[in-house]
Amino acid sequence: KMAGDSSFPDVDTDGSEKSEEMEIVVNVGGVRQVFYEDNLNQYPETRLAELVNCLSGGYDSIFSLCDDYDPAKREFYFDRDPDAFKCIIDVYYFGEIHMKKGICPICFKNEMEFWKVDLNFLDDCCKAHLSEKKEELEEIARRVQLILDDLGVDASESRWKRCQKCIWKFLEKPESSYPARVIAVLSFLFILISSVVMCVGTIPDLQVVDAEGNRMEHPTLDSIETACIGWFTMEYVLRLISSPNKLHFALSFMNIVDVLAILPFYISLTLTHLGAKLMELSNVQQAVQALRIMRIARIFKLARHSSGLQTLTYALKRSFKELGLLLMYLAVGIFVFSALGYTMEQSHPETLFKSIPQSFWWAIITMTTVGYGDIYPKTTLGKLNAAISFLCGVIAIALPIHPIINNFVRYYNKQRVLETAAKHELELMELNSAEGKAAGSRSELEDLSREGKDDPFYSSRIKVSHSDTFIHLLSEEKNYRTRLQSCK
């Protein structure tokens, strides 16, 4: 470590280095490494290259670059991550950097910034890992910020704005309070009831006959349907009024589903009372029947209350490539085997394969192993072709399924990790905030512990604190994690 005096015996009075063959000895977290001047000068902007000329600047120049220096051993000391350093120095030998497995990408990025090595030297595979980790931190920061916004109360906001925020939390965030959780459960029950009523209303024994002899839904079921639609309408209008961004709200996929679940009722009601004057009664009834079928869209409203359905939707969205491969395999197989089946069955007098387009249906139900039996081969070659087609169909369907399942499991586990990380971040924020107040005033800490989270001043103070995980989106400060800090 540092000698008792501040002089450097290896530095001349004019600041020039004695040795012609310049060696730089670096000790990073106990790992000792020797570098030569020629290698380091390939990238003069890096911190290690700056060590070559720092001795001429004396004490201030040396300690602006390292944590400690031993003039007897001519050794620079750094309290940094040695595992990350071993990866970073590859740039001086190979011109690129690969990140080892097990190293946090964000910590590795901070280490590269400390050693002043450009991120462009990082290999593409490692950049993808870094981008994924940054997206996770941004998602955690977004969730934490939403929770902090809910805790904070801005006194400058108008009463209407505060009322909007309360309604939005009440309808959109069941975890915010017990009444909000009750409303979420009621909404879930109304969706189930309306779906059951839609199905039960098609049972002939429960239908009634009107004056013209047409079957229609039972009046009781119709009343339950009306009550459910009234609940959905009120819920949608309140959420639209209280939404912070109404355009984004209206264009959201789930909100479009809500509209599709509500509109058929009002359109059919309008056609029933007013459409008879504009068109024939039979046409009105057909239009109403078609609109009633659209009520099945309300079953998708369950996705709002089911994390499993949301995960499935996201997994399918992320699996477009695999689904495209599946459809391509099936399309090629359907075309080939339907053409072969048509050709092989032409010699049979009672053939069921009248044309290649008609054979498409046989190929679809065979390759998907459904096999309705309405079209089947009768010749030996046709049966052989059918056997090969369903074997190929099983393989074509099975191949892309595994990546789709992996996407589902990965996203589901990721969401659970992000929720836990957001809660942990908030707990650390509260802990750091409380420790800061305890250092300033013991009595103030006791007052805050009695007031709890309901105090708006307490909430606002939490916002300015940060934990050792440090999410950049929550603070303007520029901090770096050291190797002694845990990666969460």
From TrEMBL:
Keywords: Cell membrane, Coiled coil, Ion channel, Ion transport, Membrane, Potassium, Potassium channel, Potassium transport, Transmembrane, Transmembrane helix, Transport, Voltage-gated channel
Record GO cellular component, one term: voltage-gated potassium channel complex
InterPro entries: Ion_trans_dom, K_chnl_volt-dep_Kv, K_chnl_volt-dep_Kv5/Kv9, KCNF1-like_BTB_POZ, SKP1/BTB/POZ_sf, T1-type_BTB, VG_K_chnl, Volt_channel_dom_sf
Compartments where located: Cell membrane
Molecular function GO labels: voltage-gated potassium channel activity
Start and end residues of each Potassium channel tetramerisation-type BTB domain: 24-125
The keyword Protease appears for this protein: no
The name this protein goes by in its record: Voltage-gated potassium channel regulatory subunit KCNF1
Annotated source species: Cisticola juncidis
